[in-house]
Write a structure and sequence with these properties.
The protein is built from five helices and no strands. The chain has 152 residues and is mostly helical.
């Protein structure tokens, strides 16, 4: 018995929207830096929230046709993150960090890569992705790009 597309979308939402946010809260909420380095506590957490926010908006707007509204919403996570970081530099009310911007870019980029690999039919269709996760991802003529690092 196969997994329905609705179930697949719920699992995707939990894994790529909810879990990164929870992970970020747990890492950042830990008072000591002994179990993780400072870059994990501060920079990785920034990348996780941009990733989660971006993939959430892609989840909502990703299948819509091109429009100004779609472009606005899909750029919101990256522009707000970079705007927030530069406001710390300009107004001196926080700590400006170039590594934060790098992690914002990584989180934003990975959200598009993961979303496209799961939901964009011209990139990979959902049924072949389910089959690939279940039976080791192998080359399939209907899907030119399957990522072995996504195997469960």
């Amino acid at each position: 018995m196969g997994v329905s597309n609705k179930t697949y979308k719920v699992i995707f939402f939990i894994c790529f929207v909810i879990l990164p946010i929870i992970t970020g809260f747990l890492i950042y909420g830990h008072r000591k830096e002994t179990f993780v380095g400072a870059w994990v506590k501060y920079n990785l957490v920034d990348g996780l929230w941009v990733f989660s926010f971006s993939i959430f908006l892609l989840y909502i707007w990703g299948q819509e046709k091109k429009s100004l509204m779609k472009t606005f919403w899909l750029l919101t996570p990256m522009l707000s993150a970079i705007g927030f970081e530069f406001s710390q530099f300009v107004f001196s009310w926080g700590t400006f960090d170039v590594l934060d911007i790098i992690w914002y870019c990584l989180g934003y980029s990975f959200s598009f890569l993961i979303f496209l690999s799961f939901f964009n039919k011209s990139f990979c269709n959902i049924k072949s992705k389910l089959k690939g996760i279940k039976n080791r991802i192998k080359y399939n003529k209907s899907c030119f790009c399957k990522f072995k690092w996504l195997m469960l």
